[in-house]
Amino acid sequence: MLVSQLLNPTLREVPAEAEVISHQLMVRAGLIRKSASGFYTYLPLGLRVLRKIETIIREEMDAKGGQEVLMPIMQPAELWKESGRWDVYGAELFRLKDRHNREFCLGPTHEEIITDLVRGEIRSYKQLPMLLYQIQNKYRDERRPRFGLMRGREFIMKDLYSFDRDEAGLHESYQKMYDAYCRIYSRCGLTYRPVEADPGAIGGTGGSHEFMVLADSGENSVVYCSGCDYAANTEKSECRPQIIEDASPEGQRKLVPTPGVKTIEDISKFLAVPKSTLVKSLLYQGNEKTFLVLIRGDRTLNEIKVNNALGGFVSLQLASPESVEKILGCEPGSVGPVGVPDGLMVIADEEVPLMKKVVCGANKADHHYVDVVPSQDFRIDQVLDLRMVEPGEACLRCGAPLKEARGIEVGQVFKLGTKYSKALGANFLDENGVEKSCVMGCYGVGVSRTIAASIEQNHDDFGIIWPMPIAPYQCIIVPASTKDTLVVETAAKLYQELKGLGVEVVLDDRDERAGVKFKDADLVGYPIRVTLGSKTLANGQVELRERKSGETHLVKVEDLTQKVKAIVEKALLY
Amino acid sequence: MLVSQLLNPTLREVPAEAEVISHQLMVRAGLIRKSASGFYTYLPLGLRVLRKIETIIREEMDAKGGQEVLMPIMQPAELWKESGRWDVYGAELFRLKDRHNREFCLGPTHEEIITDLVRGEIRSYKQLPMLLYQIQNKYRDERRPRFGLMRGREFIMKDLYSFDRDEAGLHESYQKMYDAYCRIYSRCGLTYRPVEADPGAIGGTGGSHEFMVLADSGENSVVYCSGCDYAANTEKSECRPQIIEDASPEGQRKLVPTPGVKTIEDISKFLAVPKSTLVKSLLYQGNEKTFLVLIRGDRTLNEIKVNNALGGFVSLQLASPESVEKILGCEPGSVGPVGVPDGLMVIADEEVPLMKKVVCGANKADHHYVDVVPSQDFRIDQVLDLRMVEPGEACLRCGAPLKEARGIEVGQVFKLGTKYSKALGANFLDENGVEKSCVMGCYGVGVSRTIAASIEQNHDDFGIIWPMPIAPYQCIIVPASTKDTLVVETAAKLYQELKGLGVEVVLDDRDERAGVKFKDADLVGYPIRVTLGSKTLANGQVELRERKSGETHLVKVEDLTQKVKAIVEKALLY
């Protein structure tokens, strides 16, 4: 492809609305353009990257026995009512009506559609396992679409659904997909980590893993073990309760005045005690119930654990100051567990009952209790793991210290079980003629998101650094002069030869200064740049530069194409 | 692929809801399944056909310099308001609102989005021509979705938009696309005809062609010349007025009683005059105006011509009996042109003023006028070509007789001109620094529709007959016995060898009777069937059968793979 004929509008300025680097670079490098908030057009180079990732995914899905189908984007409300999700799926679901006033939604996921399909076609255990997938647009009406392809409202996903006879079958399908996902991200040239994850709104109780592309800018925190292969989303990571060797209480609990002191930080300073001897008390509400949640003062509460522990309340939130006042007669900063009403359920993190004496709120403005003994001075109804793990803690599996990293979620696999097959009646007859529900799994890759994540992970001050397997083109030829006939003709010749060798190459034939071409080549991020200058070419040499290392070599003209081909082939090996 | 592992649920029964053969066969052959009225899931074999057509289209678009992009499906209402189409596009447009109550639609076409994109990126004539295309879902809320993929509500199209400096450039781009479309349908192995067409709702005044896949079941009528290459949608085809050598009037016009006689047929019989001496008079209304339309009694009125002649009224329709009564004081069957009110515009087909004496309605129940002289006895305000052409008429270009055929529209190309570029301000600076509007064309292929059309054209009583280039697989191997080890092993061996040669092959390894396998193979329509029977194989032979011709040959086992490969390669030549 000739750059002069390519719709690749590069920009020097950072677009005002682009907050993250991948969004900035995708716009600046001319890969995408916004059409409306959360909706983008892929320009030719952006689309090429997308297609390459899709191809890798397709190959890996097929290799595991996946069969590709294509389901409708518009889904009838009836199916969502059958699964029970129509009413619980919130404002993120785009809903619309047809001319006959029938309700539809734009699919954020396709469990209902695929289960409806399969229930019509599956009769016997002999037809299982069945792995069906598609690559297609998905929709999510984000409250605040941003970060370009990272959080759009229309985005592209691969979603595969597995149907098995039993849990053992599901486990096998799950493992196949886990392995396929590892291959996909490796083949894309990305540094990633599969981590244990929370199943979230998709549901299912059998377990879930997220695939994280590691990048300092990642919005997710992950912990991984320095000793074994344990890794988890920090939100999901289980904790081992730590015992603090604190002193025994010096007698009865005492109410002490703490004028104007409210935060854990302030109380710790005011009373000159470590934060690990304080108990944080938080009043939560969800599904019309109220709970008092207790956690050690130096820990961070993990709301997802609270939510799951309480049965997955969609609407879990901190009680309003008005509610706190009504229930406990104080403001939120003074809440404590001592003497709370009998009807109020108290749940505590595992570490709380292990504390010998604690400081806590007294449900009275400007006062705290000290020398409080958990379980003796206050009631605990339920003890659970409710906190965030912290780097340096011991791995639950091997005891080695955990480390932390930032990641961008680009894929997730779920063991669904029979949630959807039971709701929609996707059954089969087993060997004994007994009717059973299919055991399902679902497996998603954020295809468009993977583009953004790969840029977050691979860029520098000058632009994108594409991993070879997903680069829009593998090589760019830059004639540094447009007047020197030898330069122009040799560039055209090398361009044709590389194309003949199957290398994906563009020729920057624009009538621009060499500096402009270099800037664009770095911005777009072609892995290999071949530069033809008048002086070096007079000596029979051209310059070969790899974007990633920045290394530059002078190469004999006659050796160039084979060298380029060798670099490309090596980089595509997996 | 092994048939036992393929999701290819075939049906013996014709699905009740499927009215046309392509819909019946696509469901029966396990290519698609309905998810809701007008919404379908493509099963693996259906998707393979779709992808093959897409690949052919992509190659031909790229060969003409088209650049592939991918635009959003959800489009903001603002752009449609800018182009003026938001308010005129009727109930077929799916509209929805996001959580912030902003209006969107699901794109039935992408003129607004692409023009918005281009206006942001095009500055100079040097960037033109630019040809941008995508292959993507489109949406149309059909009042009555039916015929499977022929008239769905979610369907797949390729749409290319051309941007040129001037009309000459547009003509060149248009010709490129016209040629590419011819190649696409030829490469798909279809019998088709490009015909002159009406631009319809897409608009533009520069001309349009439709590409029709010829099939007796086609919903469109096309005429083509037996002498030259003229062809047109019958609705669009221009007519040459025919002069009838009728007698001169025998005096003044006379009012004659015609009790109970209303239709042209009846009057012709009652008065014993040929229908070609009658004038049909029809009262039309559109955009709050009323017109009396006159046409010779033996002709069919072409409403599209009436509509276009009057400036393209979206709502053109026959006046209601109440309106006729109010305006002319009679019922619709008695309407005639003599003595109509001064304010009522009278438009006549070109043939009417050429008639010497005519019979027509008298605006009085149970009476007609005879010996009426056009233009003398009644007023004609405008003379236009308003009728349907008829087979056998002389071609306007060469005079040879026209013939008629039935076709299914699978593509259309339009010269849009500056309709959208002016509305949205997609301008460029020409060589002299003068700002001009881009001159646009748009070019659509109904990708999913092409599948249906190809089946309408290519099938028999037993199932689909795929043209080789778009067959889901090229060859099926059917071991007639599942017990004969030689048969089973040879089948597996041939399967592997054919795969190795690059032939797309499936092996029907199911534990089914041979008859069932043959029926399925015919139904699905694999172009080549290789059958291994115990007796013939004992003689070192297998049976090679071509689906299209039904011809069967016995072939030596060792020659089989090369023979199959040769048949495939020959059929893919273009």
From TrEMBL, chains A, B:
Under Gene3D superfamilies, the record lists:
Anticodon-binding domain, Bira Bifunctional Protein, Domain 2, YbaK/aminoacyl-tRNA synthetase-associated domain
Instruction: Indicate the enzyme's highest-level EC class.
Output: ligase
What is recorded about the protein's domains? Consists of three domains: the N-terminal catalytic domain, the editing domain and the C-terminal anticodon-binding domain.
Keyword DNA-binding carried by entry = no
Entry's family note: Belongs to the class-II aminoacyl-tRNA synthetase family. ProS type 1 subfamily.
Q: What is this protein called?
A: Proline--tRNA ligase
What EC number(s) is this enzyme filed under?
6.1.1.15
Q: Which GO terms describe its molecular function?
A: proline-tRNA ligase activity
- Self-association and partners: Homodimer.
Instruction: Please give the catalytic activity noted in the UniProt record.
Output: tRNA(Pro) + L-proline + ATP = L-prolyl-tRNA(Pro) + AMP + diphosphate
Q: List locations, semicolon-separated.
A: Cytoplasm
What are the Aminoacyl-transfer RNA synthetases class-II family profile domain coordinates in residue numbering?
A: 38-467
User: Does Cell cycle show up as a keyword for this record?
Assistant: no
Q: What does this protein do?
A: Catalyzes the attachment of proline to tRNA(Pro) in a two-step reaction: proline is first activated by ATP to form Pro-AMP and then transferred to the acceptor end of tRNA(Pro). As ProRS can inadvertently accommodate and process non-cognate amino acids such as alanine and cysteine, to avoid such errors it has two additional distinct editing activities against alanine. One activity is designated as 'pretransfer' editing and involves the tRNA(Pro)-independent hydrolysis of activated Ala-AMP.
Looking up PROSITE patterns in the UniProt record yields: AA_TRNA_LIGASE_II
Keywords from the named record = Aminoacyl-tRNA synthetase, ATP-binding, Cytoplasm, Ligase, Nucleotide-binding, Protein biosynthesis
Q: Main subcellular localization, coarse class?
A: cytoplasm
